[in-house]
Sequence to fold (428 residues):
Amino acid sequence: MSAKIGLKDAIFIGIGGMVGGGIFAVLGLAVSLAKGGTPIAFLFAGIIALLTAYSYAKLSKKYPENGGTVRFVHHQFGNGIFAGGINNLLWISYIVMLALYASAFGSYSAELISITDNNEVDVKIFQTAIILLALFINYLSIKLVSSIESVSVVVKLIILIAFIAVGFYGISQNKSNLDQLSPENWEAPLLLLSGGMVIFVAYEGFELIANSIGDLKNKEKNTEKAYFGAVGFVVILYILIAIVTIGALPFDAIASAEEYVLAKAAEPTLGKIGFTIITITAMISTFSAINATVLGSGRVNFDIAKDDELPKYFSHKFWGKPIGFLITAILAVALVNTIDLKSISTAGSSGFLLIFTIVNFIGFKKHETLNSNKLIHLIATIICFIAFLTLLYQQFEENKIGVFNALGIIFLSFLVELFYKRTSSQKK
Fold:
């Protein structure tokens, strides 16, 4: 195999993983939580992502294997109940992300196309259909999934950068909403932090770089550059998008269009054409993210089963591909049609914050082997765990169902592993 990828390709994998459906799904939610401090909330989440990227970069360079997070966990914790529980949580968190992206696709699509004259029904139709379409494409051709992702990354970045440029021009012409960004319109520090944690799902995709490090040219030199280049670019992109959105629309307009706010933010300057362009961009972006997530989660599920952390049934194939593709899609359809956006986002963010806490801890424990800075790993571990606890504490006040869902998913991940390990050991 000589299919090596360059630094630019690795950075684009990370950017594509992050700027998928996350920003389109959670921007309105972020503003509802942090108000004028939304750019600060994105910065908080971005700092956690950058710190965690350090651990991922060091671990990826030492263990450049397909599987990424799954392999890191195994290298530290072996193949026991704890490792299995964490890896199960990773798979379920992917399912949550799939539901989040589908929710965004449904919300944007229903604003552009009406099927039943009932917006709520249309959203459910679109969000279900797009998961099933992505499932079909993944079974049809993995190469097609890759091609869709490659094209969509370029398209959405060009349009989002254009959106920022046009947005700043619009703000310079109409400054009526600029005062919303002033500190007196920021929420309290705890809400700013928790707002950043709820939307942390918008950053989690950088971990996909781990799966490509084995094919990266000059990985000793380029691994850190790939992670920090991707995360750093996206942090700046998200902060600028948040500034443009808050500067373009009053808070009440953002609240009323929470689930498709990015398209709404293009209207003041570009009118209906701007709304349509951003809506189509959101549909393309979330569709590519759904495609890639079906592929990624199906493979994670397959790897976990091969490692004997799930029943061997999950390593079987259906239509030539892992049956995990099908199971993942079915669970995502059920999730997106039964749980609201905030609860989905809370569950996804809490899952990944806990997983990243573990990965940072692995970096801390292996710092000598990794030849890395012990203090950075420790700080990242502590901050991720504090962020996890802060998210659950703050959301418990106003979104108890979301918190119970998040904790239930974590508990279920370990319970399933405990049950499987005990039953499988009894059969031997």
